[in-house]
């Protein structure tokens, strides 16, 4: 679509600068191989207090990876914009897979979403920060020339939708199992003070 090419060339020709290049490359790079979210999930899994959130985030991450990176990218097989748009220059490490959807975007939003939905109301601000960071990561993929806008838009939507579905299924199941375990051990919510 022409509007996507125009948008990416506008970013390249009118928004890119040395300062933003460093920031956007850093944001983009922190999601290479899902490193940032894998570390975040590992931290959540280590502590008993956050383990259930870590489990939901891990399942959401795996579901998102399978759907977006293993299935959709290979079925749709969209060429990267820097290979298709004349004059567009990639300023990041060259990806070795297809363009649609943006895996960096989907994975950052699925993990941020899963964590946000699981957090108690008093801690939702942490989830909002993760969602804002995910938005910056999504923008960075456009800024560096690695994705078309529709790749990123779909990545955001799929990440959020997958996180909601996993949350609704897994969070309820985890909490139900924990309640059953507490009841077997003679502990009920009424007895815990």
List the helices and strands and how they pair.
Elements: H1 2-15, H2 18-29, H3 35-46, H4 51-76, H5 81-84, H6 103-118, H7 124-143, H8 149-184
Describe this structure in words.
Helix 2 packs across helix 7 (about 125-145), helix 4 (about 50-75) runs antiparallel to helix 8 (about 150-185) and helix 7 runs antiparallel to helix 8 (about 150-185). Helices cover about 75% and strands about 0% of the residues. It has helices at about 1-15, 20-30, 35-45, 50-75, 80-85, 105-120, 125-145, 150-185. The chain has about 190 residues and is mainly alpha-helical.
In short:
The protein is mainly α.
Major pleated sheet: none
Strand content: under 5%
What is the helical fraction, as a range of percent? over 70%
Please provide the count of β strands: 0
Number of helices: 8
Q: Overall pLDDT, averaged?
A: 92
Helix- and strand-based class?
A: mainly alpha
Task: Give the uncertain stretches in residue-range form.
Answer: 188-193
Question: Which geometry do the CA atoms define?
Answer: elongated
Q: Determine the N-to-C terminus distance.
A: 60 Å
**Rg over alpha carbons:** 19 Å
Please write the string of helix (H) and strand (E) elements: HHHHHHHH
């Amino acid at each position: 679509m022409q509007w996507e090419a125009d948008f990416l060339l506008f970013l390249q020709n009118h928004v890119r600068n040395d300062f933003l290049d460093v920031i956007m490359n850093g944001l983009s790079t922190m999601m290479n191989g899902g490193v940032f979210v894998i570390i975040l999930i590992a931290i959540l899994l280590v502590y008993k207090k956050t383990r259930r959130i870590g489990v939901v985030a891990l399942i959401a991450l795996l579901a998102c990876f399978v759907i977006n990176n293993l299935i959709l990218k290979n079925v749709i097989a969209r060429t990267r914009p820097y290979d298709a748009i004349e004059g567009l220059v990639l300023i990041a490490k060259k990806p070795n897979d297809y363009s649609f959807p943006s895996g960096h975007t989907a994975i950052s939003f699925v993990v941020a979403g899963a964590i946000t939905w699981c957090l108690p109301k008093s801690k939702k601000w942490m989830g909002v920060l993760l969602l804002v960071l995910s938005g910056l990561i999504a923008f960075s993929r456009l800024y560096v020339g690695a994705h078309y806008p529709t790749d990123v838009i779909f990545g955001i939507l799929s990440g959020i939708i997958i996180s909601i579905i996993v949350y609704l299924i897994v969070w309820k199941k985890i909490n139900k199992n924990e309640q059953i375990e507490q009841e077997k051990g003679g502990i009920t919510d009424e007895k815990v003070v």
